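Components:
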Amino acid sequence: MNRVAVTGLGIVSALGLTVPEVWDKLKCGQSGIAPLPDRGDPPYRFSNGALAWGFEPTRYFEEKELAMLERFAQMAAVAAREAVAQSGLDFRGPLANRTAIITGSSVGGQFSEEEGYLQLYKKNNPRVSPLTIPRTMSNAGASRISLEHGIQGPVYTISTACSSSNHALGQAFWMVRQGTVEAAIAGGSEAVFAEGLLRAWEALRVVSQDTCRPFSKDRRGLILGEAGAMLVLENWEHARARGAAILGEVVGFGMSSDAYHITQPTAEGPANAMRWALQDAGLSPDAVQYVNAHGTGTTANDATETAAIRKVFGPHADRLLVSSSKSMHGHTLGAAGAVEAIATVLSLRNQLAPPTANYNEPDPACDLDVVPNVARCAAMEFAISNSFAFGGLNAVSVFRAVR
Amino acid sequence: MAEETLQDDIDARVIRVIAETQKIPADSVTMDKTFEDLKIDSLDGINIVFGLENEFNISIPDEGMESMRGVRDAANGVRQLLMQKASASPQS
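Structure:
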């Protein structure tokens, strides 16, 4: 089996519109959560969000192109451009057919769908834009990346709510590892700040009325975020042969389903996904130093995730650094797995675990070292990144440091 | 007497919302039942609260929801919010 190198990273998120900007904030524990520009009428129950502040589509696309691209697809394409540029890969040639694109998105393009409904049900206008379908389809981001770079290999999109892009990354990792493709662009994107979608999240009562405080006793829920995040994965030998800079290594992936409840988490399901991921990597639990937690900041997730980590790691759990970068970039839903994979690769590369920001007080139900508020320098060789979704679907990736 | 009728009416409407949301017979929902008795989990609870907000045109805060353990709690909570609403909007 092939080793799998990470040779490119790209991101747009509340913490910045490039990887260096995002890392500068992550390592300082600086949050991108701020008041929503549009508070809703009547106001939403929540007033803060993690928007991709300053993401101005016309900086990246022609007007004509934008007519075809929803925000989630724009963010996917922009993140992919940065990742591809960093990798230095050239897809004009045999690599075009030997490269995959696998993206994750929870809901695809909501803005066009809502605009269509507005016309149809409010304005009583039965004429819905012909671009609604190509704009809303969940694979619009993946297809745009394919068109832009001329990539003609396997291209598809996975939709598993908040695990979407961790599943996408895992699939891409396996395809490169088994030699189905030489390289893959994997990640995800989500643009959640559409009114109907915000009202739906509001009704579910899981969004915090102040900020996101994962693992803190006074946590009150998640903060919604938007992002696009992509990683270029590449056959290790292929990357070495062309002298590419290798930023990290993907060494394992595992997934599971709770088969328990549509929204309530269990410890056993996530624990199984972590076990499978470690087994896939050929690692024993005590080889791991850092966990980028799912850590949404809801009462249920953080306590359950703590229990799951304890089940898998036993006494070693007390030696792990466990942090939730969602405290800074928000919960980016279908993009979360990829955003946090990038955070994990950068943590290993810089030997610095980003903190869990906004942390106030210890919770006995979340009694791990959650790196409260201040980043921690540590010798780290292996890290895992957890994603757990509504529907009980869990995905865990394992990374190795390359320095 | 009028107050009692109003109270009965609120109780009956709360019971109806719970029964309709849970797809269970209304006569299985009595004032003494806890949500646990009725196998109502947290997502069901959110759905019931949403139904009660629609039925009574009120807004139920998260804290209020967390303290609701059964049918009587729900009816009392609704009653309290309706009283607050009545005192906040002056009668013409």
